[in-house]
Design a protein that fits this description.
Layout: E1 3-7, H1 12-24, E2 27-32, E3 46-50, H2 56-63, E4 68-71, H3 84-102, E5 106-112, H4 122-135, E6 140-146, E7 149-150, H5 156-166, E8 169-173, E9 184-185, H6 186-198, E10 205-209, H7 217-227, E11 233-237, H8 239-252, H9 260-268, H10 292-298
Parallel strand pairs: 1-2, 1-4, 2-3, 4-5, 5-6, 6-10, 7-9, 8-11
Helix pairs in contact: 1-6, 2-3, 3-4, 7-10, 8-9
Amino acid sequence: MTRVAVTGASGFVGSHTAQALLAHGDDVVLIARHANLAMFPTSEHATWVCADIDDEAALARAFAGCEAIIHCAGINLERGTQTYGKVHVRGTMAVVRAAQATGVSRSALVSFLRARPACGSVYHESKWEAEEIVRTSGLSYTILKAGVIYGRGDHLLDHLSRALNSFPIFLLVGFGSRRHLRPVSVRDVARVLVATVHDERLSNVTVPVLGPEELSLEQAVKRVATAVEKRPVYLPAPIALHRALAWIFERIMKVPLESAAQVHILAEGIVEPVLAPDRLPDDLLPSTPFSLQSIRDGLPSMQRFTIADLRGFRSTP
């Protein structure tokens, strides 16, 4: 039995990873700004620690007795003090320093498939900085450069299904038949992250993590539409329009329908890794298809976008 700390444990990838670790028989320290006891009640094998991701002292206390850390904390939209610099860069630096101080021997980082320096996207660049911090830490590391991850509690299926239930038209990003996505199931990602703790083949590697099927954005959306029994009209729209819409949505919605980072990601495609020199062992390659069944397994309850999704809206008790 191994004691493992998971940052971002109340988030999408972090929560699924914690579940996979517990199923494997590991002890898990769940680290997040706010504990979610409904998700993981405190037990002898699951312990919550509430801490900001850049609080090195609190992280060091949480890491005491841990042999490995899986760093899942991340954001795809800046809000207030939760900036890419704080969460991705300073947060990763605090995680690494706390790990070094407490004798943790292994670390894993969830990064993004196309994270790289000097590309014009603060999101991509901050993820790359986090990678470099982990690679030069002196710890045994695994960096997962993941593409679009889907599953229960994600942004992709949640927002797509709500958009398809709310609007009769779906605006595609850009023109032409360029292929955009290789969706990867969060269960497959969690399985790889558990392996980073126990499998020496994943020591000191940077690996891409992609689903088994390559799809255009239109094909992926149509598959989700079929799963939710909707038939919208699909219209290609210029990237400039999507950037303008993202600017608006980020300012008026609690969770934007689309964000600037997401538009950048879709505009360049999410099938080719950048600066990921290593390869997953064949037995760890994601194999879950983006099928109607896997989509339905990850869908939330059917909802529409409403006024409650706007920033500043306060629901009455």
